[in-house]
Each structure stands twice: as C-alpha cells, then as structure tokens.
Specification:
Number of strands: 9
C-alpha cells in the first residue's frame, strides 16, 4: 500500500503563511511515516476480521518504506514469503503448483489453530492412517477413508496442482480508508511540532 499525498499537501500549503511553507515537506514526511506505522499496527485487527485464524507470521509480515521530505511517498509492504500467499487473499485468482502433489480444497481434515492441515502437505501427509488413501473415484480426487466392509467416504477433496481463491482481504480498500482519515490528523500534529521547533 503506497501513500502519495501531494494533493493533500498542496491544499494544506494554501492555509499556511509564507514563513511556514518551508516546514511543510518535513512535516508531511513525518505525517506519512506516522500514518504508515499506525496502519501497520492495525493490520492484525484487519486480518482477524477478514481472514480465518491468520498465523502470527502473517499478521507481522509487513515492512515500511519510509518517506523522505524530498519524495513524500511511503508504502506498507508484505515481506516476500508472506506476499506469495497473501496475494491470493487480496486479489483472488488461481494458485498453481509446479508439483504433482494434490492441493486440499475442502474437507474435514484435522486442522491446527490457524486452520492449516496438520501434517505434511504431501500424499502421505494427507492420508493419516492405513484406512485412508488418496485416489480418484468416479471423477473425484480425494483422501478417502474405508468404512464398513467395502465402503469408502471422502475426507478431503483435492485438486492436482491448483486452487481457486476468492478475494477475502480488502487490503487496499481498508488501507486507503484508514490513510484518508489518519493522515490529516498526523499532518496537523507534525506541523505543530515543526512550528514549535522552528519558533515560527
């Protein structure tokens, strides 16, 4: 999420005196950075609202590119390993694997506290005991479990190498809404601070 506030700053400059205009770039940069810091802290709350039991590595998987007074642009970014999977929660779409291991898409597999399947994401890891096996039966690829003398029931529905994700986490929309509300407050605070230091 990138915050570019040049339009906001031009409007703010119209309201200050000529002696104070030199303070605007540094105050604006500070306001951008403070806004991004607060937005980063808000991400855990947002993820808990929109996602199912996100892992700590996901809620903490952000870093900030801070603004300078010459650029007046800052951004909140995902770390690479988090972006690999979060992009599908934010934008939706198909996720493909270059491996032939099946990808779980639905079922009643045992999950950990974060909603992930317990065990390795391999064929053996998905089948938990001697009564469970992976097979395609009547066109349905799944982890099956033997029941009774000759019956089977599907436990986890699978696809061979892709999964289709629906957009779940409105990261950009929520970040933009937050920044639009927070930045003007931070700019007023930062500008007042700059005036005190400069005694103007």
């Amino acid at each position: 999420m990138k915050i570019n506030v040049r339009t906001n700053i031009k409007e703010f400059e119209k309201k200050v005196s000529l002696l104070q205009k030199d303070l605007v770039p540094s105050a604006s940069s500070r306001a951008i950075n403070k806004t991004l810091e607060k937005l980063k802290l808000k991400q855990k709350q947002l993820q808990n609202k929109f996602l199912d039991r996100p892992k700590p590595q996901t809620t903490k998987g952000y870093f900030i590119k801070f603004s300078g007074k010459k650029t007046l642009v800052g951004s909140l970014n995902f770390r690479d390993f988090v972006e690999e999977y979060m992009q599908f929660q934010i934008r939706g779409g198909f996720r493909y694997s270059d491996k032939r291991n099946p990808v779980p898409i639905k079922g009643n597999a045992r999950l950990d506290q974060f909603g992930n399947i317990v065990g390795k994401r391999s064929k053996r890891g998905l089948a938990k005991n001697k009564n469970q096996f992976i097979a395609e039966i009547k066109g349905t690829l799944a982890v099956w479990e033997r029941v009774g003398k000759s019956g089977v029931k599907p436990l986890i529905l699978l696809t061979q190498n892709f999964a289709n994700y629906k957009k779940k986490f409105p990261f950009f929309e929520e970040a933009e809404k937050f920044a639009k509300k927070e930045f003007p407050k931070q700019l007023r605070v930062a500008f007042a601070r700059a005036k005190r230091k400069a005694k103007v």
